C-alpha cells in the first residue's frame, strides 16, 4: 500500500492547486480523479469550454453585425460551422487539461484514476480499472459540484439539458428556453442567441443575476433586451414536458397566472449542488450539513482533524478561483503556516458581453447593514476607448464609506470588466480609499479609466469626463 502525507480527492481548480502547493511544501502527495481527464468541472465542462464558445460566438456576431462598419467587407454569406466551433472548444479543453497532467508530473504528484471513497479516516479505496487502497496522514476533499435540478424536471440530456450538454449540441436551437437567470444560463443563452437562436430566460427572483448589485442586473437586462432576449423574472416554473422535438415549460408569473413557453431545447440552469456521491464520508466520520455540504471550520478542517474540504463542496460562492485560493490555503495550514482568505474580496464575474464583475458589498447589503456610504459612477460610453471599439454599454460604480472614504464595494459592467476588477481587488486588500484610486495614473485610452473616473465621482462629484 502506498502512503502519502496528503491525498486529495478531486482534481478541479481547488484539488489540483492544493496538490501542487502541498508538493511545493515538501509533502508526498497523491490526487484521485474519477474521470478520464484532470481539471474537474471548470476545465472540462465549465469555465474553460464555456468561455471558448463565448469567444467563438462573439467573433461570429462581430463579423455579422460590426465588420462592415469597421470597413471590413466579406464577400458572400457568413455562416456558422457549429461542428468546428465545438471542435475548437474541445481542443482548448484538451490543451488545458493536458497542462494539468504536465503539472502533476513536474511536481511529482501521483495520480490515481478512479472513484475515491473513504475506508476510514486515513485510508482511501480507489475504484477504477483496478481497485487499490492508499493511506494518507491528511486528506483533502475537493469533489466539487454538479448541476442542480428541480424535483419535477426530468433531464433527458437531449432536449431538456444541463450546461454539460449545452456545450456540445449538434445543432443551433431554434428556440432555447433557459430556466434560471444566473451566470451559467445567461452565458450559454448568449452563445446560442448570437448564433441565431431565439432565447427565453425564466427567472424565479425579481431580476437576473440576483446575487449581484441591482444596478448591474438592470444594465445587463437592457443589453439582453436589445439583443431581443425574452426575459421573464418573478416566474415560478412548475412543469417541463417534452413532446417529440418540442419542450413545453409552464410557470406562474408574479400575478399567479399560468404562462406557457414552447421551444425545441430547454436549458435547466438553477445552480449547482455539492457533489459527495460515492465518497463514503460517513466511514471516516465526516459530517455533512442539511444542504449536502461538508462541514468545516475557519481552517477548512472537518470534524475529523486530519481531513479538510474546500471549493464547491463547502459553504460559500461556487467559484473556481475561490476553490483555488482554498487549495493553497489548506496546503499551507497542513504545513503549519498561517495563511488567510478574505472572502469578502473574492470577485464574481459574468462572462457575457459586456462582462459583469463585482467585489465587496453591494448597495443592498450596505443599506441592510445600516452603513453610511457614498457612490461614484461613470458610464463606459464616455470613454474614448469605448467609442473606438464600439463597446458603449455599462458603467463602473464605486461604493465608499461616507466618513473614511474606504472602498467597500465595486460593481462594473462593460468591456473587459472581468480583467478590470483585479485592480480594485488589490486596492481593497490594502484598504484603499476612493481618493487613493482617483489619484493613480491610468493609461489613456483604456477601459480602466472608468474606474479612476468613478473614484473621482465618489470623492465628491469630481469626475472629469462627464
Automatic annotation (TrEMBL):
Keyword Oxidoreductase part of the UniProt annotation: yes
Cofactors required: FAD
Domain FAD/NAD(P)-binding: from-to ranges: 4-327
EC number assigned by the record: 1.8.1.4
Active site annotation, chain numbering: 444
One GO CC term, this protein: cytoplasm
This protein's name: Dihydrolipoyl dehydrogenase
Source domain of life: Bacteria
Pfam families: Pyr_redox_2, Pyr_redox_dim
Classification via PANTHER family: DIHYDROLIPOYL DEHYDROGENASE, MITOCHONDRIAL, DISULFIDE OXIDOREDUCTASE
Domain (Pyridine nucleotide-disulphide oxidoreductase dimerisation) ranges: 346-455
Amino acid at each position: 500500500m502506498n502512503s502519502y502525507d496528503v491525498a486529495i480527492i478531486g482534481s478541479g481548480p481547488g484539488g489540483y492547486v492544493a496538490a501542487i502547493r502541498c508538493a511545493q511544501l515538501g509533502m508526498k502527495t497523491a490526487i484521485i480523479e474519477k474521470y478520464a481527464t484532470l481539471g474537474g468541472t471548470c476545465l472540462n465542462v465549465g469555465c474553460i469550454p464555456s468561455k471558448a464558445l463565448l469567444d467563438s460566438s462573439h467573433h461570429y456576431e462581430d463579423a455579422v453585425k460590426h465588420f462592415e462598419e469597421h470597413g471590413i467587407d466579406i464577400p458572400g454569406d457568413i455562416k456558422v460551422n457549429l461542428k468546428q466551433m465545438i471542435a475548437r472548444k474541445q481542443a482548448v479543453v484538451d490543451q488545458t487539461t493536458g497542462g494539468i497532467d504536465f503539472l502533476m508530473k513536474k511536481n511529482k504528484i501521483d495520480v490515481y484514476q478512479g472513484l475515491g471513497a473513504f475506508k476510514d479516516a486515513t485510508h482511501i479505496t480507489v475504484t477504477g480499472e483496478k481497485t487499490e487502497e492508499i493511506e494518507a496522514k491528511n486528506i483533502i476533499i475537493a469533489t466539487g459540484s454538479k448541476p442542480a435540478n428541480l424535483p419535477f424536471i426530468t433531464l433527458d440530456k437531449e432536449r431538456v439539458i444541463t450546461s454539460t450538454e449545452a456545450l456540445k449540441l449538434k445543432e443551433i436551437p431554434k428556440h432555447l428556453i433557459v430556466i434560471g437567470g444566473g451566470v451559467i444560463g445567461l452565458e450559454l443563452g448568449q452563445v446560442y442567441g448570437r448564433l441565431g437562436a431565439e432565447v427565453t430566460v425564466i427567472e424565479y427572483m425579481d431580476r437576473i443575476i440576483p446575487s449581484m448589485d441591482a444596478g448591474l442586473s438592470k444594465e445587463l437586462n437592457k443589453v439582453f433586451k436589445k439583443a431581443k432576449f425574452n426575459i421573464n423574472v418573478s416566474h415560478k416554473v412548475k412543469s417541463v414536458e417534452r413532446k417529440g422535438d418540442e419542450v413545453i415549460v409552464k410557470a406562474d408569473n408574479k400575478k399567479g397566472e399560468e404562462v406557457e413557453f414552447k421551444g425545441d431545447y430547454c436549458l435547466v440552469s438553477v445552480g449547482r449542488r455539492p457533489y459527495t456521491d460515492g465518497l463514503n464520508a460517513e466511514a471516516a466520520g465526516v459530517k455533512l450539513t442539511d444542504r449536502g455540504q461538508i462541514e468545516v471550520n475557519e481552517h477548512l478542517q472537518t470534524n475529523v482533524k486530519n481531513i479538510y474540504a474546500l471549493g464547491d463542496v463547502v459553504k460559500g460562492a461556487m467559484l473556481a478561483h475561490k476553490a483555488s485560493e482554498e487549495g493553497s490555503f489548506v496546503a499551507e495550514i497542513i504545513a503549519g503556516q498561517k495563511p488567510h482568505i478574505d472572502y469578502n474580496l473574492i470577485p464574481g464575474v459574468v462572462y457575457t458581453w459586456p462582462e459583469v464583475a463585482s467585489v465587496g458589498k453591494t448597495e443592498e447589503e450596505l443599506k441592510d447593514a445600516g452603513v453610511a456610504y457614498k457612490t461614484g459612477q461613470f458610464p463606459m460610453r464616455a470613454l474614448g476607448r469605448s467609442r473606438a471599439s464600439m463597446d458603449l454599454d455599462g458603467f463602473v460604480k464605486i461604493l465608499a464609506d461616507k466618513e473614511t472614504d474606504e472602498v467597500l464595494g465595486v460593481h462594473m459592467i462593460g468591456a473587459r470588466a472581468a480583467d478590470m476588477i483585479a485592480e480594485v481587488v488589490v486596492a481593497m486588500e490594502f484598504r484603499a480609499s476612493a481618493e487613493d484610486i482617483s489619484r493613480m495614473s491610468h493609461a489613456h485610452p483604456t477601459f480602466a479609466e472608468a474606474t479612476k473616473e468613478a473614484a473621482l465621482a465618489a470623492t465628491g462629484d469630481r469626475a472629469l469626463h462627464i
